[in-house]
Design brief:
Keywords: Signal. The protein is mainly beta. It is 4% helix and 46% strand. β10 and β11 form a beta hairpin. The radius of gyration is 21 Å and the shape is globular.
């Protein structure tokens, strides 16, 4: 019964017929992803890590377009923590250097259960990864930066300066100059604009002269980033008052024109558009608009034209497999015009705890990092792809192909 189908397949191959296009459409040079293999998503609920012996946290470099032999994909063991979602990865514009904040250390495979995320000790290390040979990325430096635990990293548009967020009292902000290879050449520190409050996220303004910051108290504010004329050293100073954005804000991003800062709150399940003043005279931050989103938003992306915002939410997908809600998460699209967010479509993801999302340079396609799936046996994470239909109420269509990566993928960056 199967022979005619087999013969037909060979005839199609001989005739050169088949897919009219690749099952993955994504307009970029490469994707860089990091994975935390130390625990399953449900470990934060029932304590069971379900580790795979020998599988370690990894950075994955994926050259595009894809081919099925896997020759365009390289990996390196790099420790990171999914507890910090997508805030812990920065990549140089040319894709040759990666910066990974460890966040929390690793545990031995022999430890089958945990009591909570605090079983993973806070880490003050940042890894600098040489990705100039994409098939063989390698960690060049393991760089200690103070005490108190690091929580986020942002690379300036000029590619030579980093801002790192931390919980170190009085030194919550680290300013690190790097050379073309990523090697740190100078480290300076500054206190939190909110005295005594830890900084949980940082993001450079597209112009490079300002940095948005998020505090452990749930506020978002703006700092001016400048170079002292005499000492030639960088410094930061608060630029207007911060604004409260929910109870547990996650990572945020500037719109391409720098007019608005979009951030999701993972406890109140809202997305905020925040307006900052970048004029010489500081003005207080204010909320331009806010909309509801699915339970536990983990990360967001903004299209290159600034008109569409994509938010990935975990919902209850990270519950143990016996829970009926396990394995189902969500992508929500929003239109953005003049600082006003408008709800678009929602798409169900058959995967657990997506924590990373990025548009390609055309804005026509979306990549989503899925931590893991409801799989038994070989348990991996994945990067899925969606076609974007633009408009006032944008929508998504899932593409047929995906990239299998080490489970626990929680941050991706696009190299254009």
């Amino acid at each position: 019964m199967k022979k005619p189908h087999f013969l037909a397949a060979w005839l199609m191959l001989a005739a050169g017929t088949g897919y009219a296009q690749s099952p993955v459409q994504f307009n970029a040079k490469a994707i860089v992803a990091i994975s935390d293999a130390d625990l399953s998503a449900s470990a934060l609920v029932d304590g069971n890590r379900y580790t795979t012996p020998g599988v370690r946290d990894q950075l994955t470099y994926i050259q595009l377009p894809l081919n099925r032999n896997g020759q365009g994909i390289g990996t390196a063991n790099v420790s990171s923590s999914m507890a910090l979602t997508d805030k812990v990865l920065a990549v140089s514009n040319n894709g040759r250097v990666g910066f990974v904040v460890e966040g929390r250390g690793q545990l031995s495979d022999s430890l089958a259960t945990i009591k909570g995320i605090n079983d993973f000790a806070p880490s003050n290390y940042m890894f600098i990864v040489d990705m100039s040979a994409p098939q063989k990325p390698v960690v060049k430096y393991r760089f200690p930066t103070g005490t108190g635990g690091l929580s986020a990293v942002a690379l300036a548009p000029n590619g030579t300066s980093l801002i790192v967020a931390s919980g170190e009292a009085g030194k919550e902000i680290k300013m690190i100059d790097v050379d073309a290879t990523g090697k740190p050449t100078r480290v300076l520190t500054a206190g939190s604009p909110a005295q005594g409050v830890a900084i949980t996220d940082v993001a450079f303004h597209p112009g490079g002269q300002f940095v948005a910051y998020t505090t452990a108290a749930g506020e978002v504010g703006l700092m001016k980033y400048a170079i002292d004329d005499k000492t030639k050293k960088p410094y930061v100073i608060a630029h207007g008052k911060a604004v409260k954005v929910g109870s547990q804000p996650g990572s945020g991003k500037f719109t391409p024109d720098g007019k608005y800062f979009i951030i999701a709150d993972s406890k109140d399940n809202k997305v905020f558009a925040v307006e900052f003043s970048t004029e010489d005279t500081p003005a207080d931050a204010k909320i331009a608009s806010q909309v509801a989103v699915g339970e536990t938003p983990e990360a967001l992306a903004i299209s290159p034209d600034g008109a569409t915002v994509a938010v990935v939410s975990s919902l209850q997908s990270g519950q143990p497999f016996t829970n009926a809600a396990a394995g189902k998460s969500e992508i929500a699209l929003f239109g953005l015009q003049g600082g006003q967010l408008a709800a678009g479509s929602k798409t169900t993801v058959d995967g657990i705890m997506p924590q990373a999302v990025e548009f390609d340079k055309s804005g026509d396609n979306l990549a989503v990092g899925v931590s893991e799936y409801m799989d038994y046996g070989m348990r991996n994470g994945g990067i899925e792809f969606y076609k974007v239909t633009k408009g006032a109420q944008p929508s998504l269509t899932k593409q047929p192909g995906r990239i299998s990566v080490t489970r626990g993928v929680h941050a991706i960056r696009v190299v254009n």
